[in-house]
Amino acid sequence: MSSQELRVGMVGYAFMGAAHSQAWRTVNRVFDLPARASMVAVCGRDEAKVAAAAARLGWAEAVTDWRELIARDDIDVIDVCTPGDSHAEIAIAALEAGKHVLCEKPLANTVDEARAMVAAAAKARAAGVRSACGFNYRRVPAVSLMHNLIAAGRIGAVRHVRAVYLQDWITDPQFPLVWRLQKEKAGSGALGDIGAHIIDLTQFVTGQRITGVTGLTETFIKERPLVSDSSGLSASAGHATGEVTVDDAALFIARLDGGAVATYEASRFATGRKNALRVEVNGENGSLAFDLERLNELEFYDATRPAAEQGWSRILVTEGEHPYLGAWWPPGHIIGYEHSFTHEMRDFIEAVATGADPTPSFEDALQVQLVLDAVARSDASWVSVAT
Amino acid sequence: MSSQELRVGMVGYAFMGAAHSQAWRTVNRVFDLPARASMVAVCGRDEAKVAAAAARLGWAEAVTDWRELIARDDIDVIDVCTPGDSHAEIAIAALEAGKHVLCEKPLANTVDEARAMVAAAAKARAAGVRSACGFNYRRVPAVSLMHNLIAAGRIGAVRHVRAVYLQDWITDPQFPLVWRLQKEKAGSGALGDIGAHIIDLTQFVTGQRITGVTGLTETFIKERPLVSDSSGLSASAGHATGEVTVDDAALFIARLDGGAVATYEASRFATGRKNALRVEVNGENGSLAFDLERLNELEFYDATRPAAEQGWSRILVTEGEHPYLGAWWPPGHIIGYEHSFTHEMRDFIEAVATGADPTPSFEDALQVQLVLDAVARSDASWVSVAT
Amino acid sequence: MSSQELRVGMVGYAFMGAAHSQAWRTVNRVFDLPARASMVAVCGRDEAKVAAAAARLGWAEAVTDWRELIARDDIDVIDVCTPGDSHAEIAIAALEAGKHVLCEKPLANTVDEARAMVAAAAKARAAGVRSACGFNYRRVPAVSLMHNLIAAGRIGAVRHVRAVYLQDWITDPQFPLVWRLQKEKAGSGALGDIGAHIIDLTQFVTGQRITGVTGLTETFIKERPLVSDSSGLSASAGHATGEVTVDDAALFIARLDGGAVATYEASRFATGRKNALRVEVNGENGSLAFDLERLNELEFYDATRPAAEQGWSRILVTEGEHPYLGAWWPPGHIIGYEHSFTHEMRDFIEAVATGADPTPSFEDALQVQLVLDAVARSDASWVSVAT
Amino acid sequence: MSSQELRVGMVGYAFMGAAHSQAWRTVNRVFDLPARASMVAVCGRDEAKVAAAAARLGWAEAVTDWRELIARDDIDVIDVCTPGDSHAEIAIAALEAGKHVLCEKPLANTVDEARAMVAAAAKARAAGVRSACGFNYRRVPAVSLMHNLIAAGRIGAVRHVRAVYLQDWITDPQFPLVWRLQKEKAGSGALGDIGAHIIDLTQFVTGQRITGVTGLTETFIKERPLVSDSSGLSASAGHATGEVTVDDAALFIARLDGGAVATYEASRFATGRKNALRVEVNGENGSLAFDLERLNELEFYDATRPAAEQGWSRILVTEGEHPYLGAWWPPGHIIGYEHSFTHEMRDFIEAVATGADPTPSFEDALQVQLVLDAVARSDASWVSVAT
Q: Where is the GFO/IDH/MocA-like oxidoreductase domain positioned along the sequence (chains A, B, C, D) (predicted)?
């Protein structure tokens, strides 16, 4: 095992913090890497809770001020797992302090914040300080394979993209007004939370960027019970109610710079769809399809095969030949959601340890933000059906 | 068997004509109905070909002028299976001559033609002359079941509709310029041909109408080899080329009058998707999904079941309890595409014989036309992604 | 259309009779064949019922004595659709009278009867009189494709076969004692009715014959309500009860003469499986899988493809390149259960009209009977688990 | 977090050792338990390799003699991850030394060894020393849910079980003669390695025990290249060849003590099936089906629902209501193969810490061994098909 150490401090310890911790604990147990991550400290505002989280999640220390974390000499990496409204402040401060930064997605709540982060990242990069945004689904082996097959020309020019990210965790009108439903904390609703994932993922696998959009956003339930205390996705209902200030669903059509056309839909109201990130790409010579609820599989249609044998192949992406999987279990033994983070840390550690820029960059993440912004503005473009 | 006879004359004998003929031949062999269809004559312009088609498809006579067909006393029903550019003329003339009319979809190539047809149908209706448009997929048992479950409130208020109709029969740039790729014959491309089906089907199953749209249309291959002779979907390539004047793909977002939001996509460039009409509807209390390539199945998510047992149920729609299926085979024995036409004729015969109006009406079909028109106009509404 | 006529007389008009009638009516409408079937007469014991069936199903005449049918000069083909106990008598008499015979499966209720039928068929064959047994599933396009791919060596030597035919139509103990549950009428239960299908189908697709077996049969419900009148699969419950004298389920292991090993299971008690004939074949270089509930699909695993791209391909068997399908609808438009009979009649007509022997022969069907017999005898071979 | 500590020593560090290590590292990070596992030492014969494994997998110490491990005072639990030929010796010695024992499956290579282990476990149990056998698939949440639904009577009396465990990792004749292909090391081939899993799993979920069997075993490739060094499932080919002394595939039919009949198949030659442990159970009132390649899903057919709505429900077993999953991620976020071991450790720790007997017991595991033995003996029971 490598003797080089990357000392990590993490800010935030809810859902994302737990997922990142599992990855930091596991990554060097599975992958041979040029550096070893050590889990130095976790930061949260509530002293008792963050101490409990540190013990539970495996962090050596707990602190309550992220500025303190950034000021320490014994930390090389700041891992930002807080809600989007604090990303810019923490990430920029960390980069300026010479810390490598891994920032959860979406990069920020506004385009302006994202632009400031990009500027900070560019400046830091010149000094050898690295940054990346945590679009972890790029590291699902099947998504990585999808990217590789398209990049290798296996389906030819891409014509169609159709992407949905469907959940149903707030269909109940009594589900409370957690931070993810408040614009000032979360920036947007389904659009930024899960829509951002499919924007990044489809741009990643196709190698094309979205240039224009038209669509809509919708808030089905406009008032919800307040919560006194809530973290992450779970919450217990309170008594008074408050306004939902983000979208429940966002739907849009897009054109990509390589000539493809696309449909996108992000919703938290798709009853029965729990975590259905589904992406299909149709090319001149073939097609690919992925579903996060079956993340160990990739469907591949190869239109260059003999006509009578053409079909959608369900590739079980669990072989040593597949991305990341040589380090895990024998063929056919599936992995889970959390492995995408372990792979993210694997690639981040490798890049930082070898002096390379990890991906996706803050620039990549800004481009996602610009698309989100265009979708929000497109609400006005509407054609009525005549009667 | 009933002694009442419905004497049918059919115009057109290509793909749709063959499908309708199979249905007219079969319908009284399977269903107990108040009237019996007799296949009196088929009409086409080429004398030799229409004679061969009559013999092959089971029509007693062949004629070459549809006006002659309409003029005959021994014909009660005119079944219009021609390309869209002749629908209005034939259907209006037939209605005026007191013939019941079954007209293939889309109702017409333009809104103006469709409005004229509606006027003719309304006038005829007052005289007991019936008319319907052949959106045959309403008669797929699983689609009918989907409609019934939504109408019965099993999924509550509908929130989301997502519908695609994906084919790939013209991805080859050498595929020739058949009539379906010419605006003057076909009106539009994927939009009117297959997009019309998903517009009608989703409005039918949800009971909601589309009020506004925004989207795009795209023609990927703008020039194709000419054909001297081609009918239906198949054609052999010629030498010179001509302009493709219809869309290869149409994508749009819609709002429905019951509060639902929707995405639609129709394409002939979705490599590997042969006849993938897929519709999913999410409601407050459940969801339903259908795929024409597996038309004997309906997926149903019932969110009122115990939490630990909720899941997407694959209902094999082949039981006596399911729409239309009591007349066919024992449970588990699947039916095919052509059966949707047999069911269409079944319902048409029953309505006409009992003096009722068959569905979908010309008015229903006009509304589809209005949506197609709005989509075509929406191409302009576009928001650029900032850089 | 051909001027040669094959004049058909059918014995029996229940479930199988209806399915055969649909096929006889349709076959020349879809396929170009050297002869044209004409539906001369149907035979049944109840005069009123058979007359109604003739009118409904499209037979020109109805008769009540099969001997009369065989004696007529204006009939070329006898189609035997009765329960198994009368197959031998009718088929042998017909062959001796110089009629071509198409006999439903299983060929007979006993090995002795089947041997007598084979002798009669051999004798008739020498005089140009043809015979075949109606294992219709050989004519499902996906099954035919499966056969062709194995015969072409696409999966190499076959190692494993696993076949089930699962239904659930008698799980209710109140379902009455129809003829299919009586040994004297049906010969056996699930074993001969549906087990026969998977024995024939697997031997057909692999080109290997079963040489030895070990297994069991089971009757879960041993007493059932009597029915005064019942035909086919449906029946209404009576009051008194009688003994079920056939198996509800049969399970066996087999060795095939090409070195493959196999598992078989036929059951009418597999709750939720309506018509689940599923066959998987694993070879050295690939595998194939089929499911009758999705009969338009064939799954193909090609182990000679690049390792990272290997997967189970779902071939939608609806293309012009696929067996039988050039005559039907455009790509992606699925067919149903009944089409297997239309294809059976297609192949039978072609063989008879061109003086060839149709398949499967009575000899092929006898071999199935011999396997059924061995399974019934294997019940005794049992090893107790020590305690 | 609990202050009670369970100090673990593990013997073996190949595939199973790595999987167990991942589970020991993770279990207290995810679950609230009455004791905390500490990874004291790992044992292997090769000093350098075991030291590297300890560092990689997270064990504080590495030792080369398992007797030394057992002799230490600072170890409470011995986790046996070696090949089957050493299970009995290590486990019995550990139990006699007062150590709790978790032993990988199959319990032993022979019935005699298994009986001796049961005797040792019974004696130890009287002294409060615990033991369990590592049939980890019982701890897959979907399998646990399957067990719970059957135990709750949701499908009524069980009629049918069909279970396969299909892999294809040795279809290549050049794959070398690793220890898993040698009888003296592995006891048997597919039968004991993967067949044991489906025997245990089906007995677990149904609550019924196998009382009799008939079947066969087969070795397709009888000679393979030798390997000088090989561990686990992977190996590099050598030059000389040796005899394969275990089965490549085992197929059998069984009767269970509750009246169910069953088919079982275990094979390493099912091309395209990587880790296809599939179990279906049909009961009077419903059915359940599971596939390890999609281990986050359970299929449930509830025959008590309205007839027109019955179908196979795909339950995504990722909700807080499902076994084990409240401690992991939000709904819809899938877990992997390795989580079954984390759950196994969870249940083992809880049982040991609270003075209860963990399951499955050595007695349960002996019963599996007795079935394996009966299958091996049943090879002789064979009925030839007459000619």
A: 146-288
Token pair in block for residue C194: 């549906």
> What is the number of domains present in chain A?
2
Q: Is B384 helix (H, G, I), strand (E, B) or coil?
A: strand
On whether any CB of chain C is under 8 Å from the CB of D383, the answer is yes
Pairing of strands A100-104, A131-134: parallel
Q: Apex CA B337: angle with CA B331 and CA B338, to 5°?
A: 100
**Mean per-residue pLDDT pooled into runs of 10, chain D (387 residues):** 87 96 97 97 97 97 97 97 96 98 95 97 97 98 98 98 98 95 93 96 97 94 83 57 97 95 98 98 98 98 97 98 96 97 98 97 96 85 69
Are residues B123 and B149 located together in one domain of the fold?
A: no
> CB burial class (10 A; 0-12, 13-18, 19+) of residue A110?
middle
B167: left (phi over 0), alpha (psi -120 to 50) or beta: beta
My answer on whether B124 and B179 are in the same domain is: no
Computed from CA positions of residues A192, A197, A198, A204, in that sequence, does the dihedral angle turn out positive or negative?
positive
pLDDT tens column, D229-287: 544 455 555 579 999 999 999 999 999 999 999 999 999 999 999 999 999 999 999 99
The H or E element that residue D366 is part of is helix D362-377
A382 touches chain B (CB under 8 A): yes
**Which residues have C-beta within 8 Å of that of residue B24, sequence separation ≥ 6?**
B8, B10, B37, B39, B58, B79, B345
Residue with tokens 């498809």: B57
Across the interface, do C337 and B339 touch by the CB < 8 Å criterion?
A: no
D309 and B319 within 8 Å at the Cβ level: the answer is: no
- Tell whether A306 and A170 lie within a shared domain: yes
Q: Are residues A175 and A270 in the same domain?
A: yes
Residue C158 parent element (H or E): strand C158-166
- Which of D278, D254, D252 lies closest to D165 in space, CA to CA? D278
Residues of C in Cβ contact (< 8 Å) with B169: 330-331
**β-sheet bridge partners, residue B7:** B38
Do the Cβ atoms of B56 and C335 come within 8 Å? no
Q: Identify the bridge partners of residue C297 per DSSP, sorted by sequence position.
A: C316
- Contacts of residue B234 in chain C, CB cutoff 8 Å? 330
Q: Is the Cβ pair D370, C385 closer than 8 Å?
A: yes
User: Looking at the partner chain, which of B309, B310, B313 has a beta carbon nearest the beta carbon of D311?
Assistant: B313
Q: pLDDT by residue (tens digit) across A262-306?
A: 999 999 999 999 999 999 999 999 999 999 999 999 999 999 999
| pLDDT reported for residue D230 | 47
Residues spanned by the domain of D285: 141-294+296-335
Based on the domain organization, do B89 and B159 belong to the same domain? no
Assigned domain for D364 exists: no
Q: What does the pLDDT look like over C138-161, one tens digit per residue?
A: 999 999 999 999 999 999 999 999
- D121 and D196 both lie in a single domain: no
Give the pairing type, strands C276-283 and C158-166.
Answer: antiparallel
Q: How far apart are CA C285 and CA C265, in angstroms?
A: 26
Angle at C76 between CA C84 and CA C70, to 5 degrees: 55
Measure CB to CB from residue A316 to each of C298, C311, C316 and give the nearest one. Answer: C311
Q: What is the DSSP letter of B369?
A: H
Q: How far apart are CA B9 and CA B75, in angstroms?
A: 6
> Which residues in chain B have their CB less than 8 angstroms from residue A267's CB?
160, 282
User: Which phi and psi angles does B336 have, rounded to 5°?
Assistant: -120, -175
Alpha-helix runs per DSSP H in chain B: 15-30, 47-57, 66-71, 87-96, 111-126, 141-151, 183-186, 190, 196-206, 339-353, 362-378
- E strands present in D239-322: 241-243, 249-256, 261-267, 276-283, 286-291, 297-302, 312-316
Q: Which residue of D has its CA nearest to A333?
A: D337
